[in-house]
Design the sequence.
């Protein structure tokens, strides 16, 4: 996987008041070549309060992408054909300033076939991106077990 980073900060300055917005942090949570697609998961994190995070793919990127935002982080999932460099930009805005970081990724290596690996990769990315999902699953399982009636045939 190739990664290239870049930073852009733009602020509106009024009445000689200087504002600064820290650049968001971009990381690759996963990058895998599954069958004929490069599947990636990226995370954008801001140390600033009250910012809006958004993703901007490079011009000409027409593949579907999904993102999930929390208060200070955003996770992006997408897939594309291998042997292609693709640049993704995460933009943080607070109404006065905008700061962005971009990352160029490319999948490399042999294809790993099998749907179980792809599902595992997606689930592990979801768990890494959202600890609340894990807590929800655990609580749901506990609730279901509490409501379950014992099997009278097997309690001899």
Sequence:
């Amino acid at each position: 996987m190739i990664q290239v980073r870049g930073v852009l900060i733009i602020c509106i300055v009024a009445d000689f008041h200087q504002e600064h917005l820290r650049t968001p942090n971009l990381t690759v949570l996963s990058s895998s070549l599954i069958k004929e697609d490069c599947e990636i998961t990226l995370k954008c994190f801001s140390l600033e309060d009250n910012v809006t995070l958004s993703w901007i793919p490079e011009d000409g990127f027409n593949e579907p992408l999904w993102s999930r935002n929390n208060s200070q982080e955003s996770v992006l999932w997408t897939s594309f054909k291998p042997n292609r460099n693709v640049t993704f930009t995460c933009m943080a805005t607070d109404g006065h300033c905008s700061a962005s970081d971009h990352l160029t990724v490319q999948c490399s290596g042999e294809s790993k076939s099998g749907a179980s690996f792809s599902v595992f990769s997606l689930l592990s990315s979801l768990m890494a991106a959202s600890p609340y999902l894990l807590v929800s699953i655990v609580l749901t399982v506990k609730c279901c077990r509490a409501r379950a009636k014992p099997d009278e045939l097997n309690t001899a």
Summary: The helical segments are 115-129, 131-147. The beta strands are 4-11, 25-34, 37-45, 52-57, 65-69, 73-80, 86-93, 97-105. The CA atoms of residues 25 and 129 lie 14 Å apart.
